[in-house]
Amino acid sequence: MDTIFTAMLDALSLTTFLSVVLGVIIGIVIGAVPGLNAPMAIAVAIPLTFTMAPLAAIGMLVGVMKGGGFGGAIGAILLNTPGEPHSAATTLDGHPLAKSGKPRRALQTALYSSVAGDSCSDLVLILLAPTLAIFALRAGPVELAAILVISLTLIASLSGRSLAKGIFAAAFGAFLSTVGVDPETAAPRFTFGHVDLFDGLPLAAVAIGVLAVPEIIMRLQEGRNYRPDAATAAAMSEGDDRLPFREFLTLKKTVFRGAGIGTAIGALPGLGTTLAAFLSYAATKRFSKAPEKLGTGAPEGIAATESANSAVSGANLIPLLTLGIPGNLTAALLVGAFLIHGVTPGPLIFQRDASLIYGLFAAMIMANIMVLIVGSVGLRVFALIVKVPPFVVYPIVLLLCVVGIYVSQGGFFAVWVMLVFSVLGFFMQKLEISIVCFIIGLVLGPMIELSIRQSVILLSRNPSAILDHPFALVLFAATPFVAWLLIRDRKKLSDG
Amino acid sequence: MSLSPEGSGDAKSSGPATDLILGIIIVLFSLLLLFWIIPNQVNDAGAFGLPPSLAPRALAWLMTGLGVVLIAQNLRGAHHDPLAGKLTWSDAGHLALCIAAVAVMLTVMGFVGDAFGTPYAGFWVAAPLGLIAFTLIHTKAPLWAYAFNAVAAPAVIYAGFWWGLELPLP
Asked: Is 0.85 exceeded by the ipTM?
């Protein structure tokens, strides 16, 4: 109890509070820029946290994650340009409502639904994670290996049109995670005599390289062809179309349904926000008294998608904190941030870094409140971000990537690494090789290698000892079946 | 292969499917790892338990297998290329231009930084040039945009990193 109380006090310190607020603002601003999204915002923000205390750093990134979730809705609603696939569901009703002269109402519906969905899933995380971690602690290396294998299979199965390319991306990421000194023998692997590679590839540089820089390069290529429809954004300054809170309360059923769907989907690795948003939208249409209104600017549609996709972000931390398994790209980037600050996600985190984790829970609640306050107060200002010309935004973001990596790693080596991975990321995006699987493979690689090594050592002396691990056996046996089921239904799932 | 100048996005292609070529590249790359890079870059001598090359080798074999699967899948479904037109020569040229611009900026930044030995000397010379180059690559922007990107943006970044985070740049 003392730990929880101390953690709350840490979270309420001025430094942590300001970090969370800054994170929320960065998230909303970057998320609102057409073409940029929350994972990119986190990738760009990670280098800024290097000099911070762990709680302030993680709090800031959580703020970016939550702010970015709402920021994405701004571009989707005002410009009909979703920054992420899940925001495409928001455009279905968000943009028609904004075009009908009610942009503020559309944005406020998105904001309140996003915060409500996020808060619900955070509550589930806070209540469930410590208990699940106790069960997870009972798992040995064999069980952990089985959980990792089935999780990666889930993620790869849903990563795109080709399962082979999804698994390849994860395997390639895991392969690159072996660069550096071998943890058991201290023998250097793939360092090519370069001392900078002894600690492995710099994760922030690789993440920004494959994720953010190729996206900016593609946006730079759009050049003169890009002409955003800023008319709806301009309409923000006209008229009074506010959403009274009592009117939002009429959407409570839709919001809670969306939050439930988002939380359930977020707790399973790999399923992701897009599926949650479209499932919630479909469920709302099914249970709606006027389903024909959905798609024409119904607030119900916005509430359904925003509550569901925001709920995924909190629930995604359940497998991350209890098992150390990141369920999506955002969670994988958070693992990188945890590792940079000397914290290893997994069940032991509740024993070793209990203060940090309960502080993180408090920071998450604080971030939700801040998204609500900052989002409400600055709604008009954030709406103007979508009008900032791309020839100002993208060059500056590209320079920020370079500068951020330079300061975080203290030299040019990591920046060159980032540049090399930018080329790789560009081709991966063009050839539809999942970057999500690649990053998750890179992050999970060392953990998989360690657990498989330990399992092999354990079982090589007595192979029949596998029978002492029935849970692992069930998971190993279920893996091909689950993969087959997901591949069969993949198109339906990934297309929503 | 869809590396075409048009970039039409047409699903029908007269050449081999992009994924077929990707599969061949993956197999060749994995074999290169297995028979040249791993033996030269990982030393298994003196390992008591499992050799350090075990995981890289296993993953390289897995990648080889996946490359073969991609080849097999695309040999069967010939004449249909869902990636046709997704990667064009124009894309490759644009990528090369952007990477070259960043590389030149980094080189100038490092060179000037070393020459002056003062924090931010390299940044103040290279960042405005880099931002002007990136803006030019993007579009023919109005003059104020070049001025803003060359002066105001580096000034804000300088203020943020030097005064805000107290971190030096070259």
From this structure: yes
CB contact under 8 A, A220 and B98: yes
For residue A390, what are its two tokens? 């791309």
Q: Which of B95, B143, B156 to mutate to test the interface with A (most CBs of A within 10 A)?
A: B95
What pTM was computed for the model? Answer: 0.82
Rounded Cα gap, residues A294 and B128, in angstroms: 48
How many structural domains are present in chain A?
Answer: 1
Q: Does A473 touch chain B (CB under 8 A)?
A: no
Which of A29, A167, A185 is best to mutate for the B interface (most B CBs within 10 A)?
A: A185
Residue B80 region by backbone torsions, left for phi larger than 0, else alpha for psi between -120 and 50, else beta: beta
Which of A407, A220, A426, A34 is closest to B133 using CA atoms? A220
Which residues constitute the domain of residue A75?
Answer: 2-495
Q: What is the DSSP string of A333-373?
A: HHHHHHHHTT---STTHHHHTHHHHHHHHHHHHHHHHHHHH
Average confidence score pLDDT of chain B: 83
> CB neighbours of A94 closer than 8 A, spacing ≥ 6?
A73, A76, A77, A106, A110, A301, A302
Q: Which of residues 104-163 of B touch A (CB under 8 A)?
A: 105-106, 109-110, 123, 127, 130-131, 134-135, 137-141, 145, 148-149, 153-154, 157, 161
For residue range A320-368, what is the model confidence (pLDDT) as tens digits?
888 888 877 888 888 888 888 888 888 888 888 888 888 999 999 999 9
